[in-house]
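Hi everyone, sorry if this is the wrong subforum. Our group has a chain we'd like a structural model of before ordering constructs, and none of us has done structure prediction before. Sequence below.
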Amino acid sequence: MGRVKAGMNFLRFRDKKELANALAQKVAFLLNESLLNQKNASIVVSGGKSPIEFFKSLSKTKINWERVLVTLADERMVDKYSKDSNERLVRDYLLKNEAKSAKFISLTLKTCSSLPSPFDVVVLGMGPDGHCASLFPCAKELKEATDLRSKKSCIMITPLNAPYTRITLTLPRLLDARHIILSINGRDKEKVFKKALEDGPNMEMPIRYFLRQKDIPLSIYYSP
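Answer:
Right subforum, don't worry. Here is the predicted structure as tokens:
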């Protein structure tokens, strides 16, 4: 898997289902741990097809869900009932079973500034170009979105290699977390991850911002 840095918690699984179940148990543990010490806990999740099995598994875990806030790392600017909506994905696969009582906050320019700080858990995926959330390397807004001095919680961003304008949490907001987990599925994504571990500018592959930071515990869950 390349030169995985010391301090990264890298976990390899046999298949997507095993990864999804293990990831759900880890997230449940972290959320329950947070709820022992505070009134509410929060989790940021990503969209796309990859997290569906994880959502299904997490929805069945025993957590005091009415004290858990769920939001998105990014969202496409589509109707929330659209098949391309990340919110719809979360409502269809996560906010059911045990998790039906969780509080979901849509990601909008109005709501993102009121999200809790820090997040307890941020679960991210990775695109074939090394993007994370909607921090696309081809987007002209990337520099602003990844400015660690920025006070913005979210930003509108338009990728050149993917449909729809999006809203995404900024890099400093995503790094405002107690735990970050990167979930990667597939041989093709393994190649992208190996490249991200090599030398090169962060903006070339924005996932590097997360791999190279040293302040937040980072776990990587991988299955071929």
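For your construct planning: Residues 16-37 form the longest helix (22 residues). The radius of gyration is 16 Å.
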